[in-house]
Amino acid sequence: MDDEQRLKLSELNARAWTGEEVFCLKQAKLDSSIKRNTGFIKKLKLGITKDSKTLLLKDLGEVSLGKYLSEIINTADEGLQNVSNKSDDVAAAVEVISGLHQRFNAQFTCGLLELFLNHFAYPQDDSISDKEAIANVNKLKTNLKVFTELYLVGVFTSLDNVTSKEGLPAFLRKRTIRKEPLLFSILKEILTYKFNLGYSAAIASSFVKKYPQLFEDDNIADEYLYDKDLKNLLRTLFRKYTEAVFIKAVQLKKKSTKLIKEHQKCQIRTGKETDDFLDEYNSIVPQYEKFKSVALLLADFFKLEAPELNDEVDTKEGEEIKPSLITNAVPPPGQKVWENEEVRKFYEVLPNIDDVHDQSSENNSDSSNEKVNTFFKDLEEAESKEAIDTLSVAYWSQNLDNKATRKRLIKFFVESKDWSKVRIYARFFSTNSKYFPELIEEFVTYIDTGFRSQLHSSKINVKNIIFFSEMVKFMQLPVYMIFHKIRTLIINLQVPNNIEILTVVFEHLGIFLINKPEYKPHMEKMMGLLKEKKRDRQLNMNLKGAMDNLITLVYPPSIKSLNASTRELLPEQQFYHILIRRELQYFEAKRVIKLLRKAHWKDKEITDTLFDIFVKPEELSYQNIALLARVLSELYKYQRNFVIDCVDELFEKVERGLEVNDFSRSMHRVAEVRYLTEIYNFGLIKPDILLDVMYMIMKHGHDGKGSYLFCPNEIDNVDNYFKVQLIATMLLNLRRTTSTLKKKLPLFLRFFEYYTFTKEQPLPQETQFRLKTTFQKFSDQDGFETSESLQESATKLTSMVKTLSNVNSPTSEMTANNNANEVSSEDESDRDREQEDEYEDEFSAVEDTIEEAEEDEEFDDQSEEADGNESDEEEETEDENEENDEVEDDSYKDVMVDRDIEQKRMYDEYQAKMKDEKERKMEEDLEKQLRKIMQDSMDSRKDQKVVTAKIPYIDQGKTSISSKTAVSEPRTSANDNGNGPKKVAFTFLNKSGRKTQSRTLRLPSNVDFVSGVLEEEERLKHEREKIKNIVLQRTFD
Where are stretches of biased composition, namely Acidic residues (predicted)? Predict the structure, then answer.
């Protein structure tokens, strides 16, 4: 039905809803006979078709039908159920129902709507068969089509026209309050009908194809739609449905792919063709095809990006790969399937004997025994490809094919003992495989059985193995049969002769399987299994050497790599390699340092070699790592940048090891963290840095907080204890203790203990022993108490964290501008507490800095003492070298002087920054506030009875103080003649009752009282400057 006809009917039906009689075919005089009335009802019950439409409309205009209206409603509903899905029949049904509506108005339409809506309530019973479910879907599809047409022409418009809501289906009774368009409610219900099985997909696709105008804006449908917001609602509904279809299609694709993989794995494990996983796969494929088709249709209709649902072959499962568009591309030698073009033609270019076979089938004459004997004699003497191809043609042209000849062929190939002819015999089989598959199947079974018998016995049948290999090259054996044999051999390498069998197979098939696209993914898995098997500690060295040979057979080294010459090291480079990596334990550290200082540090090759040596502790014996760290720490005094680069590189390697998490580098990572700990022991890094590294190792892969701090994840599985081993190694080798470490280490130990409890229990014995030794060490030193369970550890950890967070850092006794007068007002106390809080963290950092500086000075003193001893020894033996050392020491001192100059420059910049306008303004405001507090305090004491007192204090001037220096320094003046001692101005306060008087006194500086005040002021100033210098030096460093 086109839009113009719908618009015409819609106008008539809208007038009929108002009670107007608009049926144009109605006669003036209606026939009320029972025969005509019952005849109409019978015709209506049979169904409405294109052919019966005219007669029904004619009777509708001539027959009264008023007394039979209730029966007509039921019959019309039954007739609509018999309407076919053809567009012409649906259009005819719409015209007839519209005619009934135009004659009887709401009396007919309301009852029919109530009955017809119940056909959309699908059964909730999931036990119905697939056949019944498909029938229900087809009926729903037809009913939806009929209802949509009646909705568009204005017959079925709204639930408001239904007299009783009790007769409606349950899904519509729930939605009466929402006032949704009736068509939208029905579609929402239908599209969920057995969605996971894909039954609603056909309904959705047919609706979108049939009524695209309901999803487009500004068309003729806007004129006859009852609900104006229907289009937006339908677009939203179908977009959500499309997204659900996408998700389901992707899930089914993944599941079907997984089932195929599992099926192939099962066949490889058993070596037999099985139906495991195929039943489930065959049930999923039809569903996937339904979702795939509707997904592509809806994606194209709504202009959405569909997921990747192409039936591309999964190359990981060894299926065919699309050939490259570059036809003349030549693969590298190590990736060639065949040795040369001649070998490729031998296995891939087979003679076409279709015509000869067809002629042989038409000629049914029997061959003589003499011809058969001659054929087998020639077969035994065949030596080349051409000879075997001629025999393949002769076999059919001479009509030799019969049951007896085939049995004799099998017997001939089985009993043949000439291994050199196996290749051409396999070519004979491959050429004729299309014409006697039973013979091929029988021979493959023989080969398979013979190969299986060798897997668990001490016998070797080399001819059987070679025949198996050649049949593989001609693609005559299934994939599962090939890799079942290889997998079984790899798993059971301890069985006698299995390594020899696998060697024969790889000699003939290794390069072919790893480079043939159809077999490459499977072969790569087998090689991975072989490499994993090689790590088995129970295998002896001979077996591991044979496994290395197998890997070489599959991955032969390229000629370029064989011919490549290794880079030769300079004699000096070789010397340092041997000195540090082999002979380090035989020399004292000072002697090694002496030799290293003589290296050509300006030569990049030498420095690169030394850098490589110092950043690879795994290349040394594990016992020598501490010696290497000591040498590096002694070298710091002479080559600071080099040592810093080495330490930075070591940090990078530790972090990279956590990110890569390669099991094969486990020993390297252990050596790296041991090396880092030894570097700390020799004072090259601070304790905070070492703790940060240990925290980083422990928390890598965890981003949770609280109870989810160490939740299981893919990076750090609960059964992976390697990070525990790393941290235990660092703690066990920790020897240098500082106040910072003693303060922060207990919290880390508690975190570490909690982390160990989050691992899968019980821990391995080796890990338990290491943890017990670690915690025992710190239990003896710091009184660390271990926990017995995760709950106890968590309780102790929480308690420690709360305790540390509640403890305030000790405040420094030093405060800026110590006043001689005590101020007791509450405002001043609050201000003091705020100032203490502000500087609390800074003073704590200063204390740590002083401690670390003292430790560094102690370490430098020890180093200088060692250097002094070394110099004493060298004076006795090497005078010339001592002179060279003095030159180097002078240059080193020059560097230190430059460094002091640079620090002074940075400090001057800092002082200049502190004296900018903003800082001066803040100081002036602070001074005003302090004076105000002092005055308030003095005013509060006016009513107190005090003894007359004369209080002298240093006069700071009557003007406002503009700098800290003016606050801390009293004003002094010289005598008029300039020869006497300088005088210091003091303000003398005289207070009697409420009256306070002051006058200025100038006292000579040589008075004990004045000199004491000046000395105290100078001492405080000196201490403040010293603290500032330490803080600035630490900050800029």
Answer: 824-889
User: Given this structure, which CATH class describes domain 570-685?
Assistant: mainly alpha
For residues 960 and 596, give the distance between their C-alpha atoms in angstroms, rounded to a whole number: 63
Eight-state DSSP code of residue 31: B
Q: What is the DSSP letter of 952?
A: E
Determine which helix (DSSP H) or strand (DSSP E) holds 977, and give its type and residue range. none
Query: Model confidence over 846-855: pLDDT tens digits?
Result: 334 334 434 4
**CA-based end-to-end distance of the chain:** 87
Collect all residues with Cβ–Cβ distance below 8 Å to 560 and sequence separation of at least 6: none
The domain locations on the chain are 3-190, 246-308, 334-559, 570-685, 695-807, 919-939+948-1036
Q: Which of 1, 215, 159 is nearest to 94 (CA)?
A: 1
Q: In the 8-state DSSP scheme, what is residue 161?
A: G
* Percent of the chain residues past pLDDT 90, beyond the cut: 14
Q: 3-190, what's its fold?
A: 1.25.40
Helix 498-515 vs helix 541-554: crossing angle, to nearest 10: 20
CATH of domain 334-559: 1.25.40.180
In this structure, are residues 252 and 291 in contact, taking their beta carbons and an 8 Å threshold?
yes
Kindly tell me the burial class for residue 946, based on how many C-beta atoms sit within 10 Å of its own C-beta (0-12, 13-18, 19 or more).
Answer: exposed
| pLDDT tens-digit series, residues 202-225 | 888 888 888 888 888 877 777 777
SS3 call for 990: strand
Least confident of 283-292, 606-615, 734-743: 283-292
Q: Which two tokens stand for residue 750?
A: 């508690």
Average pLDDT score over the chain: 77
Structure tokens at 273: 């063709």
Most confident of the ranges 708-717, 770-779, 944-953, 1001-1010: 770-779
Query: Mean pLDDT over residues 478-497, rounded?
Result: 86
Domain 3-190 shares a fold with domain 570-685: yes
Instruction: Give the residue among 466, 418, 430, 427 at the shortest CA–CA distance from 343.
Output: 427
